Amino acid sequence: MNVFRGLKQFFWQDKGFLVGAVLGLAAATALGLVYPRLIGVLIDDMIVPGKYEGLVGLALLAVGIVIIKASCQYVHGFCGGRLGNRVAYRLRNACYEKLQVLPFSFYDSARTGDLMSRLTADIEGIRNFIGFGFAQLLNTAFLVIFGFAMMGTIDWPLMLMTLALIPVLSFIAIRFELNIHPVFRSIRASVGRLTVSVQENIMGVRTVKSFASEKHEMKKFEKGNADYRDNYLALADVWAKYFPVIEFVANLSVALLLLVGGIRVIHHSLSLGDLVALNGMLGMIVAPLWQLGFQINNYTQSKAAGERLMELLNKPVSIRNPEHPLVLNDGDVQGHVKFHDVSFRYPNHEELPSALLGFDLDAPAGSVIGLLGGTGSGKSTVVQLLLRAYDVGEGAITLDGVDIRHLELESLRRQAAIVFQESFLFSTTIRENIAYGRSEATDEEIVEAAKLAQAHDFIMELPLGYETIVGERGMGLSGGQKQRIAIARALLLKPKILILDDSTSALDMETEHVIQQSLRKVMAGRTTFVIAHRISSLRHADEIVVLDRGHVIQRGKHEQLVRQPGLYRETYRTQYADRPDEWEPAGERRVSG
Ligand SMILES: Nc1ncnc2c1ncn2[C@@H]1O[C@H](COP(=O)(O)OP(=O)(O)OP(=O)(O)O)[C@@H](O)[C@H]1O
């Protein structure tokens, strides 16, 4: 029950509905038990003595009971429905909210399909159990208590005899639960794996098809599918083993009652009406007991679902606001960024060398910093740390002299806009994509940002212009067009800090050049970090930092760096190989010549 204790915060505020659902069902059950009693009365007091006067009254009583019972069932359905759906609603919101605050390190290893199945199938399991399953399980207990109490009022020795089999039945039911629970856990996990494989296949369909890997993907899926099937087969085995045993024991009590009760009716120590009533009541008790397996099944399924939800909800949030956060006032921020001897290793990858080691940087407000280096050298890590996607291992990062760990996260991230190499566009209009961070932006502002990002012209060529709906990943747009929309989105924010993480890589040199010209205008007075592989993107930076395996190996302005032997000059020479006049300083040419 620990899981349900953990989930209490989601259903306890609706305890009225919980009580209504349970009491409604319990009352309907108790009223149902009156029927066998009425039949007993009909046989013993009317049919056997041949008295018909009370017959209409008895029938009317039965109708009255039916009406009250139906009303109780309505209360059960109404309350159960409200309860289950409200709980599911709150859980869905809580999980989604949790997904918003979980740190980047969580998403480094999270699988989308698995998360999707938690937010859908698992919540559905909880909705069913808390809304209805729980009341039904309790109802079974009520039925046993009420039923045997009523049987006791008719004939207590016969009641005790049939009651003796209940502990046996309960023992089997508990064993059943212990056996079936692990199977359900594996089923849930295999559903998650299967969803992941379908989702990745769809997301990566271009890669799959271009590598002609359909067969390989099919094999992978078949493996997951076989695992899913085997889990269900294991479930069927447990069911097949326990079901007949539960049914046999449950019906054994009926057989015992018929045998002993029959003998007693023959010997006139029990009336026929009482035997019929007892048999009816026992049948009503045995029927849900027979379903006990199903109810336990339902319980274990939702327990497994609850465990997976609680696991998500209890995930620690490593990057959070400090106790007394400093909220930045947007108008007062200068944008002076400093890295003080920063070292960092990615969490959960302690075995790998540091992604950044003893990194120092002073980026005065309004400066342009270029970051250059081979792949995996730590360039993106620098900006991830600045946005507090991760916390530094050693050292500190300050914004206008304040350690960013002391700032309110949201207000810190609001100061910066980042454009990634892979631009993510939401499945909505181009207008909404550009206005993503500022939904209140005017049309003029959106067009202005698009113009600066060199996106306006191609947008206007689309039949629906800014109203064009782009797909989940900007289907139908080229990589360069997507990047330009992403740049417009960042520019619209007019951030104090602009980060371009290889964000012009998909653009041709000419477009990149034009964008840079516009950027220089827009970014005056704002601090800019440019990560690029192309020297042309960095050459105008106030400081260029060259990284290699997390270490700074060179730093300075373009003019200085091209004069020094090192990675920067190597890169420059390679990229400008066809224009030696532009790169070879005159003095050097003389020496080499
Ligand atoms: N989320 C992550 N989890 C674990 N290790 C990571 C993660 N991101 C990057 N790394 C590792 O940290 C190091 C620096 O990576 P980073 O992304 O900063 O390099 P980069 O210079 O931006 O590379 P590129 O130019 O290829 O984008 C690399 O060794 C990389 O494998």
From TrEMBL:
Residues 19-301 form the ABC transmembrane type-1 domain. The chain crosses the membrane at residues 56-76, 129-150, 156-178, 242-263, 275-294. Keywords: ATP-binding, Cell membrane, Membrane, Nucleotide-binding, Transmembrane, Transmembrane helix, Transport. InterPro entries: AAA+_ATPase (IPR003593), ABC1_TM_dom (IPR011527), ABC1_TM_sf (IPR036640), ABC_transporter-like_ATP-bd (IPR003439), ABC_transporter-like_CS (IPR017871), P-loop_NTPase (IPR027417), Type_1_exporter (IPR039421). Residues 337-574 form the ABC transporter domain. It is found in: Cell membrane. One of its GO terms (molecular function) is ATP binding. It is a multi-pass membrane protein. One of its GO terms (cellular component) is plasma membrane. It comes from the Bacteria. SUPFAM superfamilies: ABC transporter transmembrane region, P-loop containing nucleoside triphosphate hydrolases. PANTHER family: ATP-BINDING CASSETTE SUB-FAMILY B MEMBER 10, MITOCHONDRIAL (PTHR43394:SF1), ATP-DEPENDENT PERMEASE MDL1, MITOCHONDRIAL (PTHR43394). This is ABC transporter ATP-binding protein. It comes from Cohnella zeiphila.
